[in-house]
């Protein structure tokens, strides 16, 4: 990637604005599924900070919230109803008994809707893989991200307001970008594309360990805010939502709901052009296939006395001055400090 970018006269800052894969590896697996973390880790973290968390009694009026599907599945074991009317009666009696035992004066019977196209289809179709509506970031567990969120009031304020609107405002987007940069080690940055560049220069050459590019992060934010809006308005019996295809998902040719990972192509167009030459005449005319295609020769070319290589640049910010040191790449140059 580095060699092609340098040879095609592309700066690494420009290249890293793209995901460089069909899916962004910081938030997706190579198969195109969502990156997942153990949900129990977050609960364990919260529980470890509390004492006497068990509620033995509730003073005053209380409400009983019933998971409709859980009750129906539980009743399968001993259901004796022969008609839907009898089933409804048995179900009502069971709920009333539960409310009486808990001394509740209100019952909220919560069930799911199953529209033909739903973002929950992602979970139903790939339930064995633990898929959900939004992804986590590779190598960033829930405990770590919670710790970073608690470290600054601006982060806490941002999350407290998440989902007040179905679409993220520019301010929320900027704050979330800063939060993502923070848990990747760049607390005072809000430009994830720049942080990708700085992290690569610092030696993180594995794509999944870099932060997401701005394009894929924005779509991730749209999905997260959309989901938070649903949760925030969960007490409304009927919630009118805009089409989810405008908020980070799409419907493929087979009619299945899928994640819209990015709106940009995976990489700049010139990086997809796999042209190389074997010219022995210095690559100064159209006998050189690279020259004919309007491209510069690269290190994969087998030309001799090439005069179609990358010209020297006096720009101190040019990618020739970049340094990338890791296990699989090493280009000597001046190190840029954060």
What does this structure look like?
The structure is a single chain. The chain has helices at residues 2-7, 12-15, 39-48, 68-75, 84-101, 121-125, 142-151, 153-160, 170-183, 192-201, 214-232, 289-292, and strands spanning 63-67, 106-110, 249-251, 257-259, 324-326, 329-331. The protein has 12 helices and 6 strands. The strands form 3 sheets. A two-stranded parallel ribbon has the order 1-2. Strands 3-4 form a two-stranded antiparallel sheet. Helices cover 34% and strands 7% of the residues. By secondary structure, the chain is mainly alpha-helical. Among the domains are: 12-36 and 132-259, no CATH class; 62-110, no CATH class.
Question: Could you list the spans in which at least 5 consecutive residues all have pLDDT below 50?
Answer: 126-131, 310-338
Trace the largest sheet across and list its strands.
Answer: 1-2
Largest sheet: 2 strands, parallel
Shape: elongated
- The count of strands amounts to 6
Query: Residue share in helices?
Result: 25-40%
Concise description?
The protein is mainly alpha-helical. The protein has helices spanning 2-7, 12-15, 39-48, 68-75, 84-101, 121-125, 142-151, 153-160, 170-183, 192-201, 214-232, 289-292, and strands at residues 63-67, 106-110, 249-251, 257-259, 324-326, 329-331. It is elongated, with a radius of gyration of 27 Å.
């Amino acid at each position: 990637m580095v060699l092609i970018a340098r040879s095609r006269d592309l700066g690494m800052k420009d290249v890293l604005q793209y995901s460089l894969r069909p899916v962004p590896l910081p938030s997706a697996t190579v198969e195109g599924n969502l990156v997942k973390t153990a949900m129990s880790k977050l609960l364990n973290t919260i529980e470890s900070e509390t004492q006497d968390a068990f509620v033995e009694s509730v003073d005053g009026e209380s409400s009983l919230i019933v998971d409709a599907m859980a009750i129906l599945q539980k009743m399968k074991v001993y259901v004796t109803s022969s008609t839907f009317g009898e089933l409804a009666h048995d179900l009502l009696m069971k709920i009333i008994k539960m409310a009486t035992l808990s001394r509740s004066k209100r019952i909220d019977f919560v069930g799911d809707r199953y529209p033909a196209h739903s973002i929950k289809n992602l979970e139903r179709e790939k339930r064995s893989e633990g898929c959900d509506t939004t992804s986590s970031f590779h190598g960033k567990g829930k405990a770590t991200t919670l710790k970073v969120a608690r470290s600054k009031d601006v982060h806490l304020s941002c999350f407290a307001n998440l989902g007040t609107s179905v679409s993220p405002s520019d301010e929320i987007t900027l704050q979330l970008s800063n939060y993502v940069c923070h848990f990747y080690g760049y607390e005072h940055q809000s430009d994830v594309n720049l942080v990708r560049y700085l992290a690569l220069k610092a030696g993180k050459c594995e794509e999944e360990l870099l932060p997401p590019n701005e394009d894929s992060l924005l779509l991730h934010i749209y999905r997260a805010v959309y989901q938070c809006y649903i949760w925030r308005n969960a007490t409304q019996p009927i919630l009118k939502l805009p089409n989810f295809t405008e908020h980070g998902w799409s419907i493929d040719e087979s009619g299945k709901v899928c994640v819209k990972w990015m709106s940009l192509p995976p990489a700049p167009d010139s990086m997809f052009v796999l042209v190389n030459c074997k010219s022995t005449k210095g690559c100064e005319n159209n006998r050189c296939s690279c020259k004919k295609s309007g491209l510069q020769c690269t290190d994969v070319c087998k030309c001799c006395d090439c005069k179609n290589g990358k010209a020297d640049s006096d720009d101190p910010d040019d990618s020739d001055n970049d340094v990338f040191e890791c296990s699989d790449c090493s280009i000597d140059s001046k190190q840029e400090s954060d």
